[in-house]
Each structure stands twice: as structure tokens, then as C-alpha cells.
User: Which sequence fits this backbone?
């Protein structure tokens, strides 16, 4: 399969089941909602080193937020159910509670699986906190120097998919970057997905384990490193001199498929040789996104 | 099975009617003939079958509509655990007493004790409510423990008295002692709030969107925008169709802490335009 002269390789991205929460962060202005969202989603690229993965889904208009103020929708993922409350309490406590004017609401109100967040953060109020039930949902009012911080008691948690991906194999580093930027722009704001890495792009794709250390769970993906072509079993075709990866997490497989379709299509540009994907032979992750199937049929793998 | 059961009152009973047992029955599985056999107690007449008081249409439905003057009926909708009751007209005392879930809508006014000790669901009074709406029965320590009581007109004295949780909203004016002795919970008054609101309250909130004078045992804390009011007022405006204005949402509120003669963790939030 070719798209505008770019080969779509006959391979698939292998992704994992994760747990996701959606946080609606509001503020007096979009500036402050975004400030909290950026801090909350900072250093949340991979569970390998960050214990969670998070990203901004999209900005929210005043009509779409629980308190009628500007907001930001954040998707937040962990590998297990048990990790979710710990990570949320840490992050909301350190980045939203601390941020002027912000409040934090649950974005998955229909999810039956609920994790306590406000129920733990309330203790910062040192006994001066108060709760209110509005429309059947409990909120905590935590007094702070600025006024009050409002946080919902519980947040919904759903099963989600982490690790959807595709690789852009290009003739030059400039071409790979331009294609990656175009792909990220095409995926920006699509519902139900986020790109956890800086600017949505990864330059350091990894393989499982290490050649030299038994304790490392991931190390550089030498098969896709152009500088190692001559000394390792390379997967790079002739003429490929740079590879960038786009990792996509989503609330379900169709959301990831939709984003991959938009991103791959945008990445098929001049000086891009092929589009590939990272997988582990299909043995580790239950979600397989076959590139050619996604691009031809538009259906989830 | 019908969409709803309609009971039309033939004539206003001469004596008071104890209707507090009606909502205990499962109306969704009851044919019309059985509904007619259900009875209420009428002062001076003893047990009277519904078929003698009402003309009945429909059967086996979760929605019930009563039309007529029910000001002699006490405890209509008491202990409701689900479903939907519409009362077209005025209703007597203690409508929705101890209701746990579901919805009761009264298009007219209600006597004293509307929503007395209710713990869930939504009770809506289209016009005025008598004293102690959402409150505790006389001598009881605890009033409302959950749910929402919406009074679109004025409320009598001691609305929300001794409430533990829940929400009482008064679209018009509230009488003396709104939120008195509350343990927690919220009373919102769109009109004027009468004397001594929140008196002896432990943790309750009185939101006054009209004129209010806090008791002497409340102390001014600050002027600010409570974030949670944005959520609460949007809920009242959107879901309950109450006259919430943009000024209510964007305005400032003076916070008075009290009752300092009690725990002092309660508050009166008095809306101010500036």
C-alpha cells in the first residue's frame, strides 16, 4: 500500500489495556486552567518512568464545564486500577490544588468504577473543609489562601488503550520532523485520545529489555536507529536516515484507530520513505492496530 | 399498562385525610380495580376507598397524577421510594414526608412540613410552602437528610430546620429562621431571607440571593466567589429552571461564619453585586 508515494508497511501497532480517568480542570480564565493542566500532564510520558501517562485532550468552552468557566479536558492513564488513585491524588494535589482559581471535576460521570480523589485531598483542609452534594455528586470545598479549591469527591475510571503508535521513516531528520509535526497537528483535538510524549513525538522508541542489563525493562530500539544500521540487525530500508514515533493513547480502540488514520495520512509527505509501527510480535498487548487495515477500511484492528 | 394513572378528586372531603400510606403501595403492578380498593382514613368517616373519592383512569404505571384540591390531604407521597407523582392543585401538610427517591411535583401550594425528614428524590412545590419545609418533625433532632426540595414561591418559617444533608431552595422569600439548627446541608433563598437565618447552625449553608441580615452570632469573613456556587447555581438554573442570572454566577458573596454560639462551621453567603 502506498499513500502519495509513501509505503505503508504490512505491520501493526501493539497496544495495552490501561485504566483511564478524565479530568475537567476549570479556571477563572483558560490561562489558569491550562496552567494547571500543563503541570498535571508534565512528566507523564510513559509508565516506564513516570508511573502514569497523561495528556491534554482538548480545551473546553464555558458551556461544556460544570461551573461555567473555561476549562481543559485531561486524560490520565495508569497500568492498574490500584495505581490510579495514588497517582491522581499526587498530581491533582500538587498541580491543581496549588494553581490559582482552578477547580477539578470528573469527566467520566457514568463510569461505575469510581476512585476517591477529593475524598483524600479534603484533608488538606485540616478540618475546615466542607462537602456539598449537588445533583447527586459530592464535592469538597477546601479552604486555601486564595479562597476555596473545589474538587469532586470521586472520579470515574474506565478501561482504555495505551501504546497505539506508528513510526515515520524518512530520508532526513528534517523530513521526519516535518511529517511528525503534520501528524500531530492532524490528530490535535480528536476526541478520546492524547499523545503523551513531548510535542506528541518520540525520538527514542524502545525495545523490551536490554542486551547488557537484566534490570532494565526497556532500551533503545536499535533495529530502527540509523546510526546502528551497520552493526545491528536493522529494520531500516535503504535511504532511511531518521525515524520518529508517534504514540497514541485513547479511551478505546476506535478512538486510536481514528487518530492513527488522520496522523498517518498527514505524515505521508515528501521525503518520507515509509510508515511502520512498533510491536512485540503480538505476544504482549491485546490490541493490534494493523496499519493497512486502518488506512484502507477505517476500522479498528 | 398505562402511561400514567390519573386520580381526579370528585369532591373535597369534609374532614382531614391521612394519605400517608398511598405511596407505600406498588402502583406499577396494580390494576385499576385494585387501585380503587386502596383506602385512606378520613377524619369523621374512617376508612374510605379511593374509588369513592376519585375517578380513576389508567393502571400499572409508575407515574401518578392527582387533580383537585388536596389541601385536606396530609402526608401525600410520604415515604415515596421511586416513581413520579404530580399533584395538580394545592396540597395539605407533610407532602413528601420521609420520601427516599423519585419525584413529587405540586403545582399549587403546600401546607406545613413539606419534605419533612426527606432523604432523597426531588420535591417541587409550584407556589408557596408552609412552615418547616424540609425540616424536622417537632421534637425530632434531624430534618432532611438528602434530596432536593424546590419551593418556587415563598416558604414559611424554619425552612430546612435541623437538616443534616440535602438542598432546600426557595424561589421567593423565606420566613423567619431559615436553616435554623442545621447540622449541614444548604438552603438557597432567591428572595428576601427572614430574620435569624442559620441560627444555631453547626455546618449548614444559607445562600441569600436577596436581602439578608445575619444573626449577631455570625461573623463576617470575606467577600469572594465560592467556586461551588457556580456548580450549584448552574444546576438550579438548568435542571430546576430557577431564575438564576448571570449576575448571580459572576457576582461576589459575603461570607459570614457561624453560628458562633454553636460549632461555627456554618456560613451565610450573601450575594452582592460589587
Assistant:
Amino acid at each position: 500500500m502506498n499513500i502519495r508515494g509513501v509505503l505503508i508497511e504490512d505491520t501493526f501497532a501493539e497496544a495495552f489495556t490501561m485504566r483511564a480517568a478524565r479530568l475537567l480542570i476549570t479556571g477563572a480564565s483558560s490561562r489558569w486552567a491550562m496552567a494547571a493542566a500543563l503541570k498535571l500532564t508534565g512528566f507523564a510520558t510513559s509508565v516506564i518512568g513516570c508511573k502514569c501517562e497523561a495528556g491534554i485532550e482538548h480545551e473546553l468552552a464555558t458551556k461544556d464545564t460544570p461551573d461555567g468557566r473555561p476549562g481543559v479536558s485531561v486524560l490520565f492513564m495508569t497500568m492498574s486500577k490500584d495505581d490510579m488513585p495514588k497517582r491522581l491524588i499526587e498530581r491533582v494535589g500538587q498541580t491543581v490544588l496549588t494553581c490559582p482559581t482552578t477547580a477539578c471535576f470528573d469527566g467520566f460521570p457514568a463510569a461505575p468504577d469510581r476512585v476517591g480523589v477529593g475524598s483524600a485531598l479534603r484533608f488538606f483542609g485540616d478540618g475546615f473543609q466542607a462537602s456539598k452534594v449537588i445533583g447527586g455528586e459530592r464535592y469538597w470545598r477546601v479552604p486555601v489562601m486564595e479562597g476555596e479549591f473545589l474538587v469532586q469527591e470521586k472520579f470515574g475510571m474506565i478501561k482504555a488503550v495505551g501504546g497505539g503508535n506508528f513510526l515515520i521513516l524518512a530520508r532526513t531528520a528534517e523530513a521526519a520532523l516535518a511529517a511528525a509535526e503534520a501528524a500531530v497537528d492532524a490528530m490535535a483535538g480528536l476526541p478520546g485520545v492524547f499523545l503523551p510524549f513531548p510535542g506528541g513525538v518520540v525520538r527514542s522508541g524502545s525495545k523490551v529489555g536490554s542486551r547488557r542489563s537484566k534490570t532494565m525493562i526497556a532500551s533503545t530500539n536499535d533495529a530502527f536507529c540509523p546510526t546502528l544500521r551497520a552493526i545491528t540487525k536493522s529494520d531500516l530500508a535503504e535511504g532511511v536516515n531518521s525515524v520518529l514515533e508517534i504514540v497514541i493513547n485513547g479511551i478505546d480502540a476506535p478512538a486510536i484507530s481514528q487518530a492513527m488514520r488522520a496522523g498517518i495520512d498527514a505524515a505521508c509527505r515528501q521525503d518520507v520513505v515509509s510508515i511502520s509501527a512498533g510491536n512485540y510480535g503480538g505476544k504482549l498487548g491485546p490490541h493490534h492496530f494493523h496499519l493497512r487495515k486502518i488506512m484502507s477500511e477505517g476500522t479498528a484492528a | 399498562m398505562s402511561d400514567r394513572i390519573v386520580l381526579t378528586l370528585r369532591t373535597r372531603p369534609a374532614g382531614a385525610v391521612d394519605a400517608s400510606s398511598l405511596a407505600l403501595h406498588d402502583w406499577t403492578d396494580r390494576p385499576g380495580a385494585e387501585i380503587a380498593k386502596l383506602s385512606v382514613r378520613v377524619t369523621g368517616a374512617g376508612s374510605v376507598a379511593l374509588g369513592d373519592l376519585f375517578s380513576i383512569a389508567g393502571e400499572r404505571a409508575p407515574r401518578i397524577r392527582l387533580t383537585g384540591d388536596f389541601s385536606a390531604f396530609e402526608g401525600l407521597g410520604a415515604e415515596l421510594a421511586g416513581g413520579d407523582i404530580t399533584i395538580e392543585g394545592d396540597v395539605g401538610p407533610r407532602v413528601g414526608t420521609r420520601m427516599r427517591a423519585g419525584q413529587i411535583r405540586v403545582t399549587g401550594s403546600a401546607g406545613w412540613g413539606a419534605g419533612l425528614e426527606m432523604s432523597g428524590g426531588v420535591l417541587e412545590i409550584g407556589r408557596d410552602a408552609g412552615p418547616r419545609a424540609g425540616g424536622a418533625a417537632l421534637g425530632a433532632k434531624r430534618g432532611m437528610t438528602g434530596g432536593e426540595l424546590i419551593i418556587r414561591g415563598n416558604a414559611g418559617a424554619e425552612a430546612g430546620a435541623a437538616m443534616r444533608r440535602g438542598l432546600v431552595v426557595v424561589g421567593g422569600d423565606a420566613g423567619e429562621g431559615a436553616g435554623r439548627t442545621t447540622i449541614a446541608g444548604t438552603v438557597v433563598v432567591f428572595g428576601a431571607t427572614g430574620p435569624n437565618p442559620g441560627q444555631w447552625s453547626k455546618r449548614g449553608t444559607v445562600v441569600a440571593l436577596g436581602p439578608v441580615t445575619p444573626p449577631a452570632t455570625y461573623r463576617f469573613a470575606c467577600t469572594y466567589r465560592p467556586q461551588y456556587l457556580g456548580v450549584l447555581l448552574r444546576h438550579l438554573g438548568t435542571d430546576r429552571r430557577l431564575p438564576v442570572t448571570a449576575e448571580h454566577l459572576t457576582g461576589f458573596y459575603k461570607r459570614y461564619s457561624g453560628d458562633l454560639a454553636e460549632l461555627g462551621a456554618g456560613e451565610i453567603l450573601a450575594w452582592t453585586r460589587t
User: Anything to note?
Assistant: DSSP finds four helices and 17 strands in chain B. Chain B touches chain A at residues 146, 165-167, 184, 186, 203, 205, 222, 224-228, 230-232, 234-235, 239, 249, 265 (CB under 8 Å).
